[in-house]
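Re: export button greyed out
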Amino acid sequence: MIEDNGIVIAFWILSATTIACALMTAAVRELVQAVLFLALTFVGAAGIYICLSADFVAVAQILIYAGAVSVLMTFAVMLTPAADRHNSETIFQAPALVLSGLLLAVIVFVVLDTDWAISDAGAFQTTAASLGEAFLKPYVVPFEVASVLLMVAMIGAIVLTRELEEDDDA
Amino acid sequence: MTMLLDLITGYWWDARDLSNMTRPLYEFLRDQGVSDAGIFVISALLGTLAIISFVGAVAIINIWVERRVVGRMQSRLGPNRLGPFGLLQPIADAIKLMQKEVLQPASAPGWIYTVAPIAFTVPGIAILAVIPWGRNMVLANLDVGLLYILGLSSLAVLSVFMAGYSSNNKYSLFGAMRVIAMLVSYEIPIVAGLLGIVLFAGSMNLQEIVLFQEEHWAFMIMLQPLAFLIYFFSISAELNRTPADIAEAESEIVGGYHTEYSGMKFGLFYAAELINAVAVSAIIATLFLGGWWTYKLDEFIPGWMLLIGKIYGVYFIFVWTRGTLPRFRIDQLLAFAWKWLTPMALINVIVVAAEVLLWNETGWSDWFWIPAIIAINTALCVGLIVFFVKVFAPKFQRFPTRPRFYPGIDVPSLPAVTPPDFARKGGPA
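Workaround output, generated via the alternate export path:
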């Protein structure tokens, strides 16, 4: 009984938490609080991955999104001069609402349009090992392309933020 | 001796593996008609209870251990008034902390300020869930145990930031900013250093890593001395312990992120710091020092006792560094992470990958490869450290004539100092 219902209860609790935190991310008036709610949203999504017995993806989600990305976001927020504790209403509210409404419409359309097939396959045994094999055997080209993209982004960031010492001397 | 072992092996009084003690309970539950899921829930609760009791005991005992050991290292006595050897001092401290009023700045946003100490305490406890205490004694035998540990330890730093930011105080914010800068830098050497272990063991499961060390009859610290040093330095920065405690640095920024905390909220920070230190010691003991396995010794002494012994051995080294080393400056810490630890860790990963590849491809016996890898990696560790010190370290100056870190600033040179005799004669440099 617990085998069947436990996962359903966990799923609903996690979904409710995730959606509530996502709403709060948009609703709070303070940027740092929004980032913290966003981190909670990431943790909730990781919980949903665990329900799907994708433990590697879940832990990577916590490590990368809840840990690293939200820390980088707080860092960016702290370096932003406009990141006041009380953000006033901005003129960008209306276009943002329109854009997110459109996005919601697209997602709802996709959800309704998809033919959801339920798989009989059991849980993966070792997701980390099978993911590694998949990355380095059949999907090696997309994997390498993604790493080249990240490399380009990193070099671009370094070039953009580098101080031009040569120009000062000249 | 073997007769004696036969007498206890597998029975509930076989304390070498506490899972033997719980087996009668499970059999009783199954006879009562409890389903597998019910037994699973009960065993999970029992294991959690054990971990939390361990954490509570450790948080109380380690206050005393830390203060006494540091006191001894600094030629003082440490707490010695309350009870024998001052053993009751932590309990008195805890009672005092609980009685103190919890003050909160009027300008601090409430919920972040309150949640921060709790969120700081949880990861340290949760990390202990994946530590294997014996052959059958793991609370959560996760396949991604190592990544789980890394993910949780990065969450702890976020809660330090929450504390520093929500205090709405300049010094707290300084501490928080320093923590973030440090985390961004030190995450890389930590992950790259641990990658060598994962390559050797072929798994991120902590139990598998211990079994790898048992199978090949070698502690991981012998195979990976450089990774051990890198991990030790980096994690002591993440732990905010004294050689790297720039986030709270009481002589520079009052108390850093916990300046505004008082009463039990501060007590939670204090306890969580000790719990995190023990959790990290447990990780080091498991990954590098064989965990519960110790060269046949674990057949006679319970593995979990050996693990606790190793945890306290590593913890002693942490206390030792705290008692002897001065604090780094923030630029020194960040430069150390980026210019020293990160390249060393990357070189280490490349060498280990080549070794593992050769090991698998040549098919020669382990009796050749294990000593060969130990020799190569020890030489690599010593060679890299000597090379980095020779090439990249700033030259040691006994009598510096100008500030070293800001060459562009025009500073009048210091008055000439007559060096003492021992320096002129080329004495100890």
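Residues 281 and 403 of chain B are 38 Å apart (CA to CA). The button fix ships in the next patch.
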